[in-house]
């Protein structure tokens, strides 16, 4: 039995979040969201029966414009292609914006470590190649 990527990734937070629609009237629509170590999955229904929209953490640049007014916390997710997605959650919720920000920082740190290790492996293999190139030089 194969596990999906969502099942393999650790679930960091699950609950309701309101997303502002992209249409002209910009209504707030309640969505069920699941934040994992790799992505934010957004479902239209609470049973998660509909196909989710997956927002990969690698495609998120930052969580921006956090504002608390009355009973809601408003925040914007900015993607790497500079698209802005507006969300809000009730102030009683455990601050989705903070959990998403921390997941993004953790993801970026893991990626930086992987990149560093890859570069180290590439450099450790290159001295022998460098010496052989030096031997061929006139």
Automatic annotation (TrEMBL):
A Pfam family hit: PH
Subcellular location: Cytoplasm; Membrane
SMART domains: PH
GO biological process: positive regulation of apoptotic process
Gene3D superfamilies the record matches: Pleckstrin-homology domain (PH domain)/Phosphotyrosine-binding domain (PTB)
Keyword vocabulary terms for this entry: Cytoplasm, Membrane
Function of the protein: Plays a role in regulating placenta growth. May act via its PH domain that competes with other PH domain-containing proteins, thereby preventing their binding to membrane lipids.
Entry protein name: Pleckstrin homology-like domain family A member 2
Higher taxonomy: Eukaryota, Metazoa, Chordata, Craniata, Vertebrata
């Amino acid at each position: 039995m194969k596990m999906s990527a969502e099942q393999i990734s650790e679930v960091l937070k699950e609950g309701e979040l309101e997303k502002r629609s992209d249409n002209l009237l910009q209504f707030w629509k309640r969505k069920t969201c699941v934040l994992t170590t790799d992505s934010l999955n957004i479902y239209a229904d609470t049973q998660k029966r509909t196909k989710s929209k997956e927002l990969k953490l690698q495609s998120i640049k930052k969580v921006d414009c956090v504002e608390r007014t009355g009973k809601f916390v408003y925040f914007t997710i900015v993607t790497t292609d500079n698209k802005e997605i507006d969300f809000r959650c009730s102030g009683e919720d455990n601050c989705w914006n903070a959990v998403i920000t921390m997941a993004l920082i953790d993801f970026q740190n893991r990626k930086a470590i992987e990149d560093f290790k890859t570069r180290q492996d590439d450099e450790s293999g290159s001295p022998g190649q460098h010496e052989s190139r030096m031997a061929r030089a006139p």
